[in-house]
Each structure stands twice: as C-alpha cells, then as structure tokens.
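the four lines:
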Amino acid sequence: MCRWLAYSGTPVSLDDLLYRPEHSLIDQSLHSTMGAETTNGDGFGVGWYGSEDTPGIYRSIEPAWNDRNLHDLAPHVHSPLVFAHIRAAIGSAVQQTNCHPFRYGKWLFMHNGFIGDFHKVKRDLALAVDPSLFALIEGSADTEIFFYLALTFGLEDDPPAAVEAAVGLIEEVGLKHGVEHPIQMTVATTDGATIWAFRYSSVHDSRSLFYSTDVPTLQALHPELEILSVLSEESRLIVSEPLRDLPGAWNEVPESSYGIVQEGQDELRAFTPKAPVAAHA
Amino acid sequence: MCRWLAYSGTPVSLDDLLYRPEHSLIDQSLHSTMGAETTNGDGFGVGWYGSEDTPGIYRSIEPAWNDRNLHDLAPHVHSPLVFAHIRAAIGSAVQQTNCHPFRYGKWLFMHNGFIGDFHKVKRDLALAVDPSLFALIEGSADTEIFFYLALTFGLEDDPPAAVEAAVGLIEEVGLKHGVEHPIQMTVATTDGATIWAFRYSSVHDSRSLFYSTDVPTLQALHPELEILSVLSEESRLIVSEPLRDLPGAWNEVPESSYGIVQEGQDELRAFTPKAPVAAHA
Amino acid sequence: MCRWLAYSGTPVSLDDLLYRPEHSLIDQSLHSTMGAETTNGDGFGVGWYGSEDTPGIYRSIEPAWNDRNLHDLAPHVHSPLVFAHIRAAIGSAVQQTNCHPFRYGKWLFMHNGFIGDFHKVKRDLALAVDPSLFALIEGSADTEIFFYLALTFGLEDDPPAAVEAAVGLIEEVGLKHGVEHPIQMTVATTDGATIWAFRYSSVHDSRSLFYSTDVPTLQALHPELEILSVLSEESRLIVSEPLRDLPGAWNEVPESSYGIVQEGQDELRAFTPKAPVAAHA
Amino acid sequence: MCRWLAYSGTPVSLDDLLYRPEHSLIDQSLHSTMGAETTNGDGFGVGWYGSEDTPGIYRSIEPAWNDRNLHDLAPHVHSPLVFAHIRAAIGSAVQQTNCHPFRYGKWLFMHNGFIGDFHKVKRDLALAVDPSLFALIEGSADTEIFFYLALTFGLEDDPPAAVEAAVGLIEEVGLKHGVEHPIQMTVATTDGATIWAFRYSSVHDSRSLFYSTDVPTLQALHPELEILSVLSEESRLIVSEPLRDLPGAWNEVPESSYGIVQEGQDELRAFTPKAPVAAHA
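prediction for all of em together
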C-alpha cells in the first residue's frame, strides 16, 4: 500500500509539506498507522508546478526517508500545487519508471491501491491504450497503464468521465478474466490548476482518503496554529492518512466518490465506473 | 551500441573473463575502438550457469567499470557458460529491467543493435507476443520484446527458426510502418548447453562479431600463452570486438549468418529472416 | 538497529539461509518483532567464503527485500561460512561503503548497535587507527572505525583480545568526552575458519544475540525437520533474532560474553573491555 | 579528470546552463575533447543559490547523461549562481558523499584534479582538519579533505589565503612523504555572492580553466546571439573547457593564479601556496 498527498493553495516549500508536519509523509513511509502495509520503502516521487508549462518531477527508488537529494531539494522548491507519493511495491519491479506521480504533458497522476490480478488483465488493458500513447509506456506498474487508459478515454477533456471509463474498463476486463475485485484505488490527478481525487474499489471498501477542512474554519478552531494564518482561504490538502492529530481538521472522502479542488467552491460527487463502449473490441 | 561476450568451455571465473584480458569487456566499456558509440556506461549484465536449473544473473544500472559488487563477485563465480553485456542506451530508460541478458526459464538472450524506429512498431510487436508471456514484460527495451517474440515463435524448440521468425516479423512490421532499416543486430542466446550467435541487419551492414579460433590451433600458434593449456579443446569465445590483439585468434562471423557452439563440431550457417504466417493478423 | 546472521557448517546456499527460513533475515528487514527499530531498509551486505583466499562480498544500499540481484545470486552461491547484515542507519549516510560486513584480507566484521555520540569521539578513535590502515577508511560508519581499531589492536592474532582492546578504547575515549554509554554492540568477526561473536554494551543491557542448539540435539527434538538431517553436527547459526519459533533451538548469548564457533567444541567466555595502554597518547 | 562550471549573473535555469549550450557540460561528460580522461561517468553534482540561506545541492552516482531527475529538475531551478561538476573517479569510491560540489553552511567547493598519492598523505591531512570539523567528513574523496582544510585555515574569512594555506600544507605533507607532485587542481569556491576560481599544480602544468569575456564585449562581437541580450553586464562563466567554439569568448586563467568574480570589477591575481605555520605540529 502506498501513501500520497496532494496540495493546492498558497505556495509552500516541499520541506513544509513533506518533512515538517507531525506524522509527515516521510514519517509515514517508515511507520504507517493506518496502512495495509507498514513500510513504504519501495521508492517515491514528487511532482510540482512552477514557472514551466510541464510540472517538475523527482522520482527515486531509494526509500524516501534515505534520500538526501530530496532532503536537500525540499527547501528550495516552492509551489502552489504539489503531488507526493511513497510506494510499497506489490510485485512489480522497484524502478524509477514505476514510481508515481506519472506525468504526461502538464498532467500528473498517482494511485494508492492496485489493479487486481494484474498479470491476467495486463495485455487486454495495454491493448486498450490508444496506439499513439502505447510506446510511451516505460515500466511495468499497473498504475502506468491505468493512467494511459484515462488519457485514452479523455482525461485532458473531462477527467471524471475519463477515470470512470478507465475504471469501468478495468472492471469489465477483470470480470472477463475471473478477477474477483478488479480494482482498489484512491487516485489523484491534476492539470496544474484543478485537482481531482477519487476513492473507489470494486469491493466497496476502499483505502482511506481525507481532505482538510477549509482554512477559515481551521483558523477559528485552532487560532494558536501560526501556519494557518499564512495560508490562503482556498488552500487544501488531500491525503491517504491525516498528517497530524488535529481535531476538526480532517474529513473522510466518502466511499465511491470524488472531490474537485478548484478555484472557487470545491466539490464532492459520486463516482460511477462506466466501461467505454468502444473498448469492447 | 553495446558490447557482449559469450563463453563456453572449461569453467572459468568471471574475473578471468571480464577483468583479466587485455582490452577486456570492462575496458571496452570505457574506451571502445570499434564501436559506434565510444562509451558504454548505461548498465550491464552477466548471466552464468552453475548448479541450478536456471542461470544466475546480475544486472546493474551503474557503469560496469564502477560496480564494486561485480568486481567482488567476479573471482567467486565459476562457470562453463557465461554471457556478459554492457549497454549504451539508445533512448530507452536506464533501468535494471532494460539490461541484458534477459532470462526466461533456462534461457538467456542478449543483443547489440536496435529495432529501428522502435516507438513506431512497439505496439504491433508487443501484440504479437504470446498472451501468456505478455505480462512478463517488465521494461521498455526493444530487446526484451525481441526476446519474447523469439520465445513466442519457438525459441525453446528451434532457436534459429524462432529468431528468423522474430526478425522476419520485425522487418515486416517495420516495412508496414515505413521504417527504412527495421533491425540491426548481433544476438546470442543459449539454453545453458548450446550457444547460438546471430549477425544480421536489414541494411546488410551489421555490427561486428567474432569467434575465437579452435583451441588446438591457438595452442600451436601461441605456445607461450599459458592460459591456452588449461582450456578444453572445445572452449570458445564469441565477442563484439576482439579482446586482445592475437594474430590468428579471431574470425569474423560473416554477414547474415549464425554460429552454433555445441558439443562436438561447431557450425556456421546462413541466416534468413522469415515472417511467421500466423503473425499477419 | 540492524540485524545480522552468521553461519558455519555444511555448505548451504544463500537462498537457504536468507530467503527460505520462516521469519528469515529478509522478512525481518521488513517486520522486526524484537528490534529497537522496526524497519531495516538502509542497505545490507553478505559475505561468504568460497574457493578464493578472500571472501566474496555483496553490499547494496537498496532495501534487502527489493534487491533482485541478491535474490538472483542467492541460489547460486554456496558456502560453509556466511555473514549477512541488514542495516537501519542511525545518522550516517546510506552508502555502500557504510554497509556491513566490512572486509580486510580474509577477515569479515559486522555489528549491530552503535558507538555513542560518535561525532564527539570519531576523531580520537580515527587517530588511534594504525597509520598504515588509515587510508583504507572509505565511509563514515562507526563500525568501520571500530573494525580498523580491532585490526590495529591485533585482530588477526588474537580476536577476543583485539576486540576487548578496541571496546576498551572506545569506552575510555567516550568517557573523556562525556559520553554516558560509549558502546552498544553485538559483533561478529571471522577469518573464514572460526567465528567470534560478542555481546556487550556499556550500559550492560545489550541487544539480543542467539546461537543455535547443536545439531544432534535438534535432530532428537525435531525429527520431522528434514533440513536437520543434511547438516553436519558442527553446523551453527548465530543471529540477532531467532529465525523461527522452534522450541529448544535458540539459546541466548549471555550479557558481556562472547562465543567461539570453531572446529571441535564451541566455547562461551566472558568479555571484558581493556583499553590498550599505548592508545593513551 | 573531472569537469566543472561556475556561473554568476542574471538568473538562468539549470537547463540553460547544463543542457542547452553546444558542447555543454553534459555532452562533455560523454565526449571530452580536452580532458585527461575521455569519459566522466562517475557521478556528478549541482549546487545553486535560491531563496534559502544555504545553497541547494543535487548529487548522484549515475552518469550525468543518464540522470532523469536532473533532466526533469533542470528547467525548474533558476538561480543567479550555479556550480556544476562531473566526475571521473581516480581510485576513490563512486558514492554520493564523494561527489562535488561539497557544501558547508553557505559555502560550496569543487575541484578538478587530485592530491597526489593521496593514500600516503591522507592521515596527516585529516589530522590537520580542525577537530570541530573532523566528524563532518563523510566520504573518502581527496577533495573533501581539501575543502575541510580550507575551512580550517579560514575559508570563510579570506578564501584566497585559506586555499593558499591548504595547498601549502598539501605540498609540505606531500614532500615529507616523498610525493613528487602533491597537487593538481582547478578549484572553485563561493559563499553565494562571490566566486573564487584557482588554477594551480605542483608541476606548474595545470588543468585548463577558462573564463568568459565580459558581456558587453561579447555582445559587440556576436550581436546575432540572442541569449547575450538578456544577460546582465556582470554575468560570467568559468569552465574547465569552453562550452562552444565562439571566437573571442573564452580566456585562459593563467597558470598559478586565481580569479574573483564579484560585484563590480572582477579580478585576476597570482596564487602562491603557503603552508600554515601552526600545521607543522
């Protein structure tokens, strides 16, 4: 089981996000309290948006807690939108090309969970990837295929519909191959402006996902927390596991739903996988 | 451009094969004199046969000349059949799963050269891989697909026919996608008893490949070379580039041909790619 | 906290030692039940004796559970004497030159524990290393200095006396710098024939260390365990943590003592640090 | 032989500095035309100044030309002062802690060359390092010791005097141990505001070092080069090897001298090693 974090809001440093909080993502990589696996030492990745059109990305196969370059970079990288992921590999090779977040153009994508019995369905799923994208597959991770399926089904135009289509296909192909629970997932994707975060699993018992309470409410609840005073009202954090034990700060994303973190009011909607008709060929 | 070496004969240590010869493979990785690329620092691999059914394998993304583990292992590993490969990546990621030799059961496979315009043909070639093998693909190297195609076309039963079928398909698919020269290759494969070594390219101007003169002749030519006295008569070396400048020691494998190093008389035959009929679907 | 294992006896493969046992060292690296730290993902190393004068050695900064090369090598390496170590770094860099076992000539050395407040005492200890050995120091681990101190004080001639001298010096220097508990250790060293295993700490509450019951007794206790029938009577395992829950199989090395695994009767003796007089300069 | 580059001036991205120029540092790592060694594949490092007090640093043991993280970071990191170094190891281990630039507080330090017969002089030099700095030594590179010697002799107060003292000591200790040519160097150091770049060798035949012509002159010489129009008048580059063949652009730093790149007029002065008196103990 992996861990991930997505942040949008007032520009912060990676250091503020990844190392400073109590029970930070880096701490969690060593000692998870809520995870299916207790250690996440099989690589990690960070993606962020800065002055360039495409996001920066840093991925490594070392355990996150050991990586000196990450530690040294973290205070120097400031960004208003950050994805971070630590990996507990389930079967596939520990290699940089299997580390999240995955990137395509200005899009990032990361995943906690798995495609069930991936070896049984991998070929059918790979064939459903748009031929123009196929040659870009570099690793062997289920999530990389998942990402290219979402791109195939229109991630760049309508992310929720594209993820629903990709998951619908994964369930359909799984069913065909006798896989009991074809997918388990919390997923985040972004174009650098909006974040979409999904919680779903075929068994309807999905891995945990939390979003932070809006900043004004948090400020009222915890006036003693200085950091809250520098965050914009729209700053938001979405995490696999709460970063610190702060009463009133964390809200669970409901089963089979997704959230949209965007300019203006954020939203929470139902998530319903739908296999794309064209993919039956 | 990569370099490789295949050895069969009296058991020797990896140290004897890889480090001790003048102009050894390790030296070549730093300073090639015949190669298309002068530096081969993009990973390497060694495979060898010992007491187990499947060969041992050691692959790393560090330059071979830096790898302390290889240096420390080399004197401790003795084997009658060794494959070694150093890589100059052409485009694909530098990751362990892209390093040669590739292994399947008791088979090893390594390649110097490339599949032309691989991004154009990768999908069609991947689809031609037997579905039962597809999920085993772990990396993004053209050679990994090549290997699984050869396995698909019967490598375990008739290696020359299987490699001719795989190359035939690669040429046919390349042609279909407008690739001028679909393949450039010297390839070696083995089941642990016999070695097959191929030299071929679509442009009929293939990368160099040499086999060593038979040991009795070498002993007569160079009675001063002590190592020759401990080698069995059937010991044989096949290399991308001669290891040392020894008059009479190295013979070029002719264009469009392959050699078989086996118990008894070794053989040299013509190589003719033939696209498999079933693969046209 | 690290974990280690030392084996002497009937030649076995690294696979048999490291991967096959229930609660194996590799398992322990992910989920320790007795350790001070729960995860040991900061590199590992294996040393073994074969046909060469010096032992083979393989060390890596990847977590042991991820290392494919170790996994692939393990069935191919057979040895009558093996050291294996997995590391939980305490402060010092995660780099190959900090991984155990350390090697000098035919000697291996590994350590679970630490030199207290190492940054305070490092210089004085480094200065006590024999000048002819000083330039061989390659990393920044406390154990590397400890090893060179033991060599300085005669490890090759009288290992117990040399380790007692090194520990005596470490305590004396620690005292001088106000370090409350200068050393915590279980240590193993070998020349390829005999193993010496030490358990000691300044606070007299040392990390755990166990040795296996003699093989004939184990055979009588557990006639159902097939593997016992192929082990010689003198085969012996020393471990930080019992490998499996086998009644009667594991015996604790007492506080402040050391064991000698050797041809003939093994021995258990008291361990008493003694600072070398010459080192006071 | 290593290669390095130091830049000061208008903020640029690492991409502009490291990847875009013809005959860039990354290209040089594969194919040097002026170097003593033709391949520099033994790690690299980059240091830069940003919003923090201490410079950012990224060091890796992969060949620079393979490192995807560097490639992905480069467009995202902008800085007015950058050090970059690619390494051809001469003997010492390829590990991150041996990669340049070395950092202490706000200082960076990098070196092309070597301390002659380092194994003979390492101990004496290490003992001359200030005891308060000794425990910070993490690797086994001659340059790390050189840097701590310069810090010991006042780098933070008077860099030229400190480097002259360090080199004086290295020569004196070398002489004592019968080393013919104790040092070969081009060295750069900076506090984030000023750069000092030294060229010196005991044999008075030092490795090459060039500084760029002042920007106004370059603009007059090469009005067609667009990039020159965005650089401030004080922008300056110092390099082991000219980055591109631009008539009038590169000036050799004379033998036994050093340059100061600073606000206002840059300077060029004679370099004269002077062994510190206190170091004779």
